[in-house]
């Protein structure tokens, strides 16, 4: 994610903070100084958002889905899951895990507040400014309640979409949930103009998030209808294992490839990436051979979805993928490049 910075990882899941979150913490500190109560409260909120997002990620992992990373924003966090669950029941379980975690933490903190201070008459979901446990409880309950709003990009919107997807097409369910999200964003911005400028910022985030979610989901589901054979290039420029890296680079430049397809005696060996070649010093490229570098043994079948090719390319960090047929899985039938995926993306937008 642009303008986000990695601060660590939990259970192998990278945690990143968006610069806007950092600016928010800095602003709260500057406005509160020398009083540190609210900056400390903000840091605790930071930790609770991480726990909220980790709960999504753990459920995703339970269902064998890869979690790329967690990114924290001023209005919450985002768990970047490699793919949208095909089963609506899996999606709503994954989505509701976050709010349930926040509600559980808030409830425990309320009980601790009552046990330690005897305060039972304070109104819920408000900040007292003097009782840390109660304020942390309120923040978690607010976090859970806000995320349960049935509109994208909140968790409630994903739960709502999953329930709709039981009866409607996935793309239609996405449109309805996103429409509510955009409507909510506009309402929040209008109310913010009249009462609270913070609502304007949150409304803009909600509107943009709902719009991007709609576009990404609808295009990706439509891309699944485009076959690899429809956008692959049948003419392939392959290198031989005995070629030097200098020779391989020349073939790649002529074909406008970013990676090298490796073929031996008419059979596919795999892909040598640009990054591996660039690790070799220029003066060594005229003597070092292709077969001396790591070869990724990857391919895709011509009748598969271009969306699957896109996922493989992203996961393997390559810019092209060799295409084979099921009748001849060792012979290169074509190649899909980033340009082919971009063409499929544009084609998908016309199909939707």
Description:
It is a single chain. The strands form three sheets. A four-stranded mixed β-sheet has the order 1-2-3-4. The chain has a three-stranded mixed β-sheet with strand order 5-6-7. The chain contains twelve helices and ten strands. The chain is elongated. With 352 residues, it is of the alpha/beta class. β6 and β7 form a beta hairpin. It folds into two domains: 220 residues, no CATH class; 124 residues, CBS-domain (Roll).
Overview in brief:
The protein folds into 2 domains: 4-223, no CATH class; 228-351, CBS-domain, CATH 3.10.580.
Describe the protein's topology.
Blueprint: E1 4-10, E2 13-18, H1 19-32, H2 37-62, E3 67-73, E4 76-81, H3 88-117, H4 132-147, H5 155-165, H6 170-194, H7 197-223, H8 228-231, E5 238-239, H9 245-255, E6 260-264, E7 267-272, H10 274-278, E8 300-301, H11 306-316, E9 320-324, E10 334-337, H12 338-351
Parallel strand pairs: 2-3, 5-6, 8-9
Antiparallel strand pairs: 1-2, 3-4, 6-7, 9-10
Helix pairs in contact: 1-2, 2-3, 2-4, 3-4, 3-5, 5-6, 6-7, 7-12
List keywords for this structure.
352 residues; alpha/beta; CBS-domain; four-stranded mixed beta sheet; 55% helix; 14% strand
The overall number of domains is 2
**Number of helical runs?**
12
User: Which stretches are poorly predicted, pLDDT < 50 over at least 5 residues?
Assistant: none
Count of individual beta strands: 10
- Any idea what the radius of gyration is? 25 Å
Proportion of residues in extended strands: 5-15%
- Note the main sheet: 4 strands, mixed
Order of helices and strands: EEHHEEHHHHHHEHEEHEHEEH
How does the helix and strand content classify structurally? alpha/beta
Shape: elongated
Residues in helices, as a percent range: 55-70%
How would you state the average pLDDT, rounded?
81
- Side by side, the strands of the main sheet go 1-2-3-4
Q: Report how far apart the termini are.
A: 27 Å
